[in-house]
Write a structure and sequence with these properties.
The protein is 33% helix and 20% strand. By secondary structure, the protein is α+β, with helices and mostly antiparallel strands. A six-stranded mixed sheet has the order 4-3-2-1-5-6, with helices on both faces. The chain is elongated and about 70 Å long. The two termini are 44 Å apart. This is Aminopeptidase P family protein. It comes from Streptomyces solicavernae. Pfam families: Creatinase_N, Peptidase_M24.
Length: 368
């Protein structure tokens, strides 16, 4: 992987040079990990005119949650544990002879930005913007392999839960069990806090588990994901507990399923982000569910669970091949519950079989 990280840093350096910056400091954790292989807590990466350095507050551990630094990259540990790595990086850049420095202004606080100016007053600071995020947008096959494994782990954990007795157990208990199973199957940990909603809580994308117990006839909606080598998957499914689904449950489920299928089928290279959103959203709009729909139908995944692109009504841009995204429409009926169906996919051209579905747990409306 060393040559991969070096190539990523070289692409960013070329952009900095073209923008008139002799050096750059990357401080956003996911961006640091993308370029350096690891992002220990508080770390920053210096792309210097003479050498690239990973600055850390303490020696990297190599644990899965922070990654293992690129062997070809120099690691510089600050002499005091409470030091600011970005500020130290600016000082080192000035010492290497840089006269200009690009920084991630969208990540730095005003206080840190002032500290950078203070420690190296002769450096001209420029905004790196979201240059690294744009580099991260299209994944290479090694990254997609990690995402594929993360999705498999989430599928396994969810599949095992569906084979257990659910009636009488609380949302909180089920969420904790799912997260334990993720780790049991090789995940670094959950990709995000697991959501389990039953009955009136089902179908809410932002629901945090409560002590409500699963009851016969409930909708049960689950949204979980696994982190594997830093890469994150997402899957959401909805089931009915114990009995044959009621007519209204079948109708609502079929509607959300149709919307999700329309969104998945719209994932082709060159499709506008908002076109994908519209494909799924229009199915729900036509059925009268305009109000209360999620602000986005899907989003990118990778080293973060919610990254570009955003599949939203006002989103600008077009999909490229090898971009992993979620498609996750949902409808929640206050006082009754709802349905959410969520998959992680990779955009692929039709010649390669179309979008690659990473999360494969059945989307049939099962009565558990």
């Amino acid at each position: 992987m060393s040559e991969v990280y070096a190539a990523r840093r070289a692409r960013l350096r070329d952009q900095c040079t073209a923008g008139g910056s002799a050096a750059a400091v990357v401080s956003r954790p996911a961006n640091v990990r993308y370029l350096a292989g690891a992002a220990p807590r508080g770390a920053a990466l210096l792309l210097g005119p003479r050498a690239d350095l990973l600055l850390c507050r303490s020696h990297p551990t190599g644990e899965p949650d922070e990654g293992r630094p690129d062997d070809a990259l120099q690691v510089h540990v600050l002499p005091t544990a409470g030091g600011d790595t970005a500020v130290a990086a600016a000082d080192l850049a000035a010492g290497q002879g840089a006269d200009s420095l690009a920084v991630e202004e969208h990540h730095l606080t005003v206080v840190r930005h002032r500290a950078l100016n203070s420690v190296a007053p002769r450096l001209r600071l420029a905004d790196l913007g979201c240059a690294v995020e744009q580099l991260r947008l299209i994944k290479d096959e090694e990254e997609i392999s990690c995402l594929r494994i993360a999705a498999e782990i989430a599928d396994q954990a969810l599949g095992e839960l569906l084979e257990s007795i659910l009636v009488g157990r609380t949302e909180r208990h089920l969420a904790l069990e799912l997260e334990r199973r993720l780790v049991d199957h090789g995940a670094d940990g959950p990709a995000f806090p697991t959501s389990v909603g039953t009955g009136v809580n089902s179908g809410r994308g932002t629901h945090r588990p409560t002590d409500r117990r699963v009851e016969e006839g409930d909708f049960l909606s689950v949204c979980l994901g696994a982190a594997y080598r830093g890469y994150r998957s997402e899957i959401g499914r909805t089931f009915v507990i114990g009995t044959t689904p009621a007519d209204w449950q079948i109708e609502l489920y079929d509607l959300v399923f149709a919307a999700q299928r329309a969104g998945r089928e719209a994932l082709v290279p060159g499709a506008e982000y908002r076109e994908v959103d519209h494909a799924a959203r229009s199915v729900l709009d036509a059925a009268g569910y305009t109000d209360g729909l999620p602000p986005v139908i899907g989003h990118g995944v990778g080293l973060e669970i919610d990254e570009d692109p955003q599949l939203a009504p006002g989103a600008m841009g077009k999909l490229d091949a090898c971009v992993p995204v979620t498609v996750e429409p949902g409808v929640h009926l206050p006082g009754r519950g709802g349905v959410r169906i969520d998959d992680t996919l990779v955009v692929r051209p039709e010649a390669d079989g179309g979008p690659e579905l990473l999360t494969i747990t059945t989307k049939e409306l099962l009565a558990l």
